[in-house]
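Give me structure tokens for this 414-residue protein.
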Amino acid sequence: MKTEKTVNLGYRYRLYPTKDQQQILNHQMFIYNQAYNICLNLWHKENSKNKDLPKELKKYRSAVSYDRVVKRALRLRKISFSTVVTQQARMNFLKATKKAFSKETIALRLKAIENAKTSKEKAKAFNLGMPTFKSSRDIFQSFNWNNQGYRIIDDINNNPRFRNLRLLKSNFQFRYHRELPKDYKLSSITISKDSTGYFVSFGIEFTKQIDLAVSSDNLDISKSIGIDLNAYNIAVSNNVDFIAEQNISSVSMNHLIDNGATNRKGLKYKVGSLVLLRKQSRRVLKELETSKKNKTKFKLGSNHRKTQSKINKLTKKISNQKNDLYHKISTALTNKFDLIAVEDLKTKNMSKSSKGNEIVHGKKVKQKSGLNRTILNASFYQFVSMIQYKQTMLNDKLFVKVNPQYTSQELLSS
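Here you go.
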């Protein structure tokens, strides 16, 4: 029996702006950061005033008041801005403050404060989950736009691979590598930038046809699979040779899927990338020594920025390879199986440092740090999240997290 399901998803495309368009986007990202920082500064002042006052005398700013102050501050500095961008920055800031004082975040903060042993750890614990100032020097920059004042223009010169996004009185070309669903509703637009270029993300809502919603009553047990996550492969309880047949990833012994960690490790630690990393270390140490000796400001040159740009691009390439492979594996598994059971791994606990602190010193720190890097590079949480939303939200199938205790075993018949 076919049913309809409302789905919310994000579709991300690569932008190809001209130099003039890059200046427009960079300016809007700067405005977004400034508006967010002004709101945060006002919020800190408000908290300091209300700190010692009784509850009935405490005063809090309205959303309109935040907008008014932001606009006045930008006009005094003679900076041109779009009201949509400043309002979106204010909305995101208020969401961040609300999240900072949610029950879950407060519980995590109290637990961190309780476990903190040194003054440095306590200071970090007190600020856990709190909104922080945004720097325009960070590699990743973005700004949000609402669902008005935009238009997607179809084929450019009859080329179906590209589309134009009409925004900010300019046409931004983007690579249309996958179709948007029919009759979708746009909820938000995010323009972002990282070390590799510019991107546009559309937050959309659409209706999807589900052939059969799987439940415990109509479950076919032969279409179920258990997944055990390891550093270099994904062990499964069912035959998954179809993944190798589809040229997604290699499969050994019918149930071990290569997660691409070996290839990514080879790319990360190849001779060329190691040379770049050593160059950066020498430059930083040399400049640090010079600044201490001459009592000058710590400042790195253009060569450092160029080398860092190469390292960032390599890191992003490795990340993209992992995302692409994990998406392909998770899609193949969720299309094939009606029930997927995965270990409920606590990556944060698994990758805790054994260094210790000033009071209690750790043991075998180097060995544990190497293991932690391997665990974090495998990105267990990312893969499980992909499986979960594709299995439940997109396909209305069953997904279960199980206790990881005693799962990494194989029974051998005598």
